Amino acid sequence: MGNQFLYSEIEYARVKWYLVSSGRPGSIEEILAVTRNGFLKAGQIQERLHQEGIIDLREVRELDE
Hints:
The protein is mainly α and 65 residues long. The protein is 66% helix and 0% strand. Helix 1 (9-22) crosses helix 2 and helix 2 packs across helix 3. The longest helix has 14 residues, at 9-22. The mean pLDDT is 82.
């Protein structure tokens, strides 16, 4: 059984566009500013952005601390 994602491809594209166009690092707060639908969804989007090389998750987590 594969992963079940809480976000749609449209939401993911919206977040990706926002981060790429603004040059933001991709913190949970920045993702929530676009999705406004919970931390789990934002975390999943954050993980996918990291996997695609859009953001550096280690750097983002240091900023979150």
